[in-house]
Design a protein that fits this description.
Bound molecules: ligand BES, manganese (II) ion, zinc ion
Oligomer: single chain
Structural class: alpha/beta
Radius of gyration: 24 Å
Strand order of the largest sheet: 8-9-11-10-14-18-15-16
Number of strands: 20
Shape: elongated
CATH architecture of the largest domain: 3-Layer(aba) Sandwich
Number of helices: 14
Strand content: 15-25%
Distance between the termini: 27 Å
């Protein structure tokens, strides 16, 4: 099966005899066994490991020549058995892919550690292996004039692996399904990464809406794009206010997926799930202008919308028994003679008046109208919004974790569980009603901005007024992890596609 441009096959043959440029083994710290290695190779490996001080610590690798002298061997450390999570397996596989690229190995054979990890199902093991490997091969090289051009972003360019053969897992229905699932999740992540990496002069609301439209080819999917005139008609005053200062006008994209009605499939209750994404294609801050350094990466401020779109693409590919709605709130936050000014009062779609005391708190404005639109039109059973909403969330949790905020504890738990199965880091942040005082305005129903401290929470409290009271709604602040500024085995440098895997797991396990 081809997964994002890389050929993946399961093989029942002996790994030590595989025809490959690189053979990969995994080792657990404190465990002498190396699965898949015959006795002569195992002996050689333990010898090499001892000589070079390799103890299979997490993240450590060892490269040496195969006894035959024709292929390279790679040993990847997984660390101690107790610490091996889905996320770590994925990172270990990503590390192997990066080594393979560095060694210019085109054909890679690998043996995931299975027997030693009784806590993992075979299908989770396979998914972690595939996802880690393929995602590590991702490149955004469309603007490099030296590239051969027009190629898919994954596995483009020289020196990148083309084929992965996975040994030690027997073909089965379950594993076929796991492969299809990985393939869909990876495709979704690639969609999100490509969108986040795209510069803002190339990707603006209209262009992003155009790309979202291409999902509409499936008969189960309808795509609706609202332009400036329809947005006026819909009274989306908050979304329009943000876009006012830009020559690129706002869009709201509504993608609806309806499952095929199959007789006898009403066993479980069919749910309606809404995923809403912040799609600010560039955030200059508006008149509350950002500084040079904080504006630098603001082409990534549509990372929430990219994640929900990528997840939607994966769900459509895999099929779901639930109805899924995806809403992208798209605008560019700029300055001009007509732009939103600090102190302006605007009226959101639900009639709430907002005194805009900071034009840089624009994400909550575009989301306000999107949340009201979808909850009023579709009355979903559950709503998740995903947004690069606050620097405060990044201060609190760092760049590898996203914040989860909800009045609905069970829903928050459900999201955290999906995230840990998907190998992504989410962490709960508090919803403290007490802080709502910070949003009191003397001339309008609300301010859009509270104090600096606790900024992730006040942003979420602001949003809570645009979904029905007591509804199952959660806000996911992904400002930290959607973008990586350092090269990392799994995430690379640039857009990460963070959120896609968790959202897909959330929808599929409902
Ligand atoms: N897009 C930013 C949030 C952000 C910050 C994302 C850093 C990624 C990295 C958002 O629109 C913003 O500017 N938020 C302000 C809110 C403040 C004015 C209340 C912030 O966090 O500074
Ligand atoms: Mn902003
Ligand atoms: Zn923003």
């Amino acid at each position: 099966m081809r997964v994002a441009g890389i050929d993946i096959t399961l093989s029942s043959s002996d790994l030590a005899a595989a025809t490959a440029d690189l053979i990969v083994f995994f080792a657990i710290e404190g465990d002498r066994r190396i699965e898949g290695a015959d006795s002569s190779l195992a002996k050689r490996m333990t010898g090499e490991a001892k000589r070079r001080g390799f103890r299979a610590e997490y993240g450590k690798t060892l490269v040496f020549e195969h006894v035959s002298g024709k292929t390279d061997c790679l040993l990847v450390g997984l660390g101690r058995r107790e610490g091996v999570t889905f996320e770590r397996l994925r990172i270990a596989s990503a590390t192997a892919a990066r080594q393979a690229a560095a060694l210019r190995a085109k054909r890679v054979a690998m043996r995931p550690v299975g027997a030693a990890l009784e806590t993992f199902d075979k299908d989770a093991l396979l998914r972690a292996t595939i996802e880690g490997f393929v995602l590590a091969c991702y490149r955004f090289d469309k603007y490099l004039s030296r590239s051969t051009g027009g190629r898919k972003s994954v596995s483009g360019g020289a020196g990148r692996p083309e084929r992965l053969t996975i040994h030690g897992l027997k073909k089965s229905k379950v594993l076929d399904a796991a492969m299809r699932r990985s393939s869909a999740v990876v495709d979704g992540i690639v969609i999100a990464r490509d969108l986040v990496n795209e510069p803002a002069n190339m990707l603006y609301p209209e262009e992003m809406a155009k790309r979202a439209r291409s999902l509409g080819k499936s008969p189960q999917v309808t795509v609706k794009v609202l332009g400036p005139r329809e947005l006026e008609r819909q009274k989306m005053g908050a979304l329009l206010a943000v876009a006012r200062g830009s020559d690129r006008s706002a869009r709201l994209v509504h993608i609806a997926y309806k499952p095929k009605s199959v007789a006898g499939s009403t066993r479980r209750k069919r749910r309606k799930i809404a995923l809403v994404g912040k799609g600010v294609t560039f955030d200059s801050g508006g008149y509350d202008l950002k500084s040079t350094s904080t504006m630098a990466d603001m082409k990534t401020d549509m990372g929430g919308a990219a994640a929900v779109l990528g997840a939607m693409a994966a769900v459509v590919q895999l099929g779901s028994e639930h109805e899924v709605h995806c809403v992208l709130a798209l605008a560019e936050n700029m300055v001009s003679g007509d732009a939103l000014k600090p102190g302006d009062v605007i009226t959101a779609r639900n009639g709430r008046t907002i005194e805009v005391n900071n034009t840089d708190a624009e994400g909550r404005l575009v989301l306000a109208d999107a949340l009201d639109y979808i909850t009023e039109k579709e009355n979903p059973d559950v709503v998740l919004d995903v947004a690069t909403l606050t620097g405060a969330c990044v201060i609190a949790l760092g760049t590898r974790l996203a914040g989860v905020m909800s009045f609905d504890r069970k829903l928050a738990e459900e999201i955290l569980a999906a995230a840990s199965r998907a190998g992504e880091g989410f962490w709960p942040l508090p919803m403290v009603e007490e802080y709502s005082k910070q949003l009191e305005s003397s001339i309008a129903d609300t301010l859009n901005t509270g104090e600096r401290y606790g900024g992730a929470t006040t942003a979420a409290l602001f949003l809570s007024h645009f979904v029905p009271q007591g509804s199952a709604w959660a806000h996911l602040d992904v400002a930290g992890p959607v973008f990586s500024s350092q090269a990392d085995p799994l995430w690379g440098k640039g857009g990460t596609g963070f959120g896609v895997a968790t959202l897909v797991d959330f929808v599929l396990s409902r």
